[in-house]
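Sequence in, structure out. First:
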Amino acid sequence: MFEQRMATSNMMTSKWTAIAVLVTCEVLALTLWFSATAVVPVLKEEYQLASWQASLFSSSVAIGFVMGTVTSALLGLADRIDPRRFFSIAAFVAAGCNGAILMLEPTSWLVIICRLATGICMAGLYPVGMKIAASWAEKDTGLLIGLLVGALTLGSASPHLFNALGGIDWQLTIQLSSICALIAGGLIHFVVLGPQHSLAASFNGSLVLQAWRHKPLRLANLGYFGHMWELYAMWAWIGVFFHASFAQLGWIETTASFYANLATFLVIAAGAAGCLFGGLFADKLGRTTLTMLAMAISGSCALVVGFLFGSNPWLLTFICIIWGITIVADSAQFSSCVVELSEPAYRGTMLTIQTSIGFLLTLVTIHLIPIWVEQVGWEYAFGLLAIGPFLGVVAMWRLRLHPESVKLANGKR
């Protein structure tokens, strides 16, 4: 009896040590995603970067991510390779591609190529990290995946903090994010895989279609797609929105830039808390409940936040922080749904397919926002994003009514 208690205690210690190291690796590695996006306002000022070029600083990473995840899904890489080795190689290559930007003219097409290559490598970081976390899941899938998405959120926000503290030295932001990724690539080897980890014996191409044919998976994915319609466009453009809004107040450029970067960091980083509490809530009260609530609030924020453009900066930042919390609080739960509705040996591929299509959708809204701003102004631009979460609510309600939803959150749906 004593030996059994000791074994259980050691397993729990190993679990939370592994999760802590994994979360640290994700925070460090995911600083690469928005490392160039964070410095867009400075580059637009110094190099007269066009709006379409600024869009490509974000969308090229998403394009690369889609390319990487499609390749990974078609070859079943996430389920056939030791995930730690996959993560490490991806982090090292991504750090090199990101660092190469420092040797190029910011307006050069080669910068976009570097961002594309960085995005390709992300296929070995984000979905692979979720697979590692899921290997430790036991009645706490939502919390574990929530911690991973929270790490992604904090990592995505970090470049804005680097940028705020570094002033107008945009090179420092690129340098720090590349160094962080290198550290992550080495640290990942200290992560222990959980007892539910398994490798697929062979590649099964029919899995790609299974994500759509199986109705519960299809509904979970549709909910995720609605969520993704909103998320990355908001993350990509909220910094530019803050810069433009604070400039309307008549602040000098350095002051407006500092507070805009700080506000952007706070808004995106607040999502990490949303992921943590969202995971706890979903495991106890249900995945569909959490996702529908979060999307309803975030979609409402998207509709109203533009009307605060150029007004009280404290109120604007407060509403945006609420948006930042709710816009990503549900993200992990769509992945948790896939974990709970899929065969264990192929979870990596199912997660990769989900994220691949989701990020493909982000390309649409990332490029639509600046066009929409020119047409209707910032007051109405983010309202376009509300379409996704409201349709996502419908998909998750239909999943809640499906008999297989009893597999979610230990029957709590």
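Second:
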Amino acid sequence: MGEPFPEVVAKAMVLLRANALLKGFSGIRPLVIERLLDLVNKDIIPVIPQQGSLGASGDLAPLSHLALVLIGEGEVFYKGNRVSSLEAFQKEGIFPVTLQAKEGLALINGTQAMTAMGVVGYLEAEQLAYQSELISSMTIEGLNGIIDAFAEEVHNARGYKQQIDTAARIRGYLSDSLLTTMQGELRVQDAYSLRCIPQVHGATWQALDYVKEKLEIEMNAATDNPLIFDDGEKVISGGNFHGQPIAYAMDFMKIAVAEMANISERRIERLINPQLNDLPPFLSPEQGLQSGAMIMQYVAASLVSENKTLAHPASVDSIPSSANQEDHVSMGTIASRHAHQIIQNTRRVLAIEMICAMQAVEYRGVKKMASQTKRFYDMGRLIVPSIKKDRIFSKDIENAAEYLKTVDLTKVLQQLDNIK
């Protein structure tokens, strides 16, 4: 039901299903696994609806659409088109599989839909977490933030590795900035959305580390049922298909990424609100005539509010199915889908913060920026020009979000170093 999974997720689903079957506990011929790998190698991507899985008894509905492709039914994305699987097979010289005993069940019983969506979501969330530190560093400069709060001894005193690491990266980004201040220079302390970046972003990293651990286990797990042991002599009906571990992990990731957007939106407010800073109201080039970034903050607030709804844990819900035999289910696939949407929303919030922070540092003096944030600013200005008058800012937000989705900031900084 509903829209199909993104192609990258569907392709990951095929690969993960093959990997699970390669564990040797599923009672399936090598031919079936080879055909799954043909799909990956020939870039034949099953069309798999996102909705319809309860996250227990495996992702039965989504994985059934994967299995349909192997037997020459169903649809695939092939060479930019949505076609029947049989058409793609004929063009590639591939023959459909005639399934034998246990093989159909082995293909559709597992957690690969929620896991594939979770892996793609995790990789995007990890990238966003790094980007949020660089973007927030530029915001600190735009607000003449107090650098003392990021001192190493402060974070060592608490002891969380992720918090310590976040503070260290921000200190590194801002090490030669002339726009940061010391406590007591302009004010005694900053608001929490600046001062507590290591504590909040660090906690997000803690959640992401947990998610990564669970996904790595699940990616390499045998999750169908029944499982075959002792060279086929022992067949055990168990419950490895139950998605509860991934459901919890996805719900945890939802909350952690949503909070990354939440604190970002508060920094956006501090950048544009004249009652909270000494910058032009709404960063407007013409106070009273041009709206500046006012509506962009509206958009960020809307996305953050939507995230709060999506962050409600899916794993606390369960509906019995299969004549009440399957009387507890995980809803892990719903959790992974909601996590993916939260990540997309959060990227747009961070894109808005990036736009506002770039505008703020222009008012402060770009030449006073730290070398690292200045390089990021220079690249950002190739994507989003300075605000000289009101324009269609939705295009800027989408361009900045797409940039954040595709860019490897480490490589960008290295490339700019080489250029200079």
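Remark: Strands lie at 45-46, 75-78, 81-84, 227-229, 234-236.
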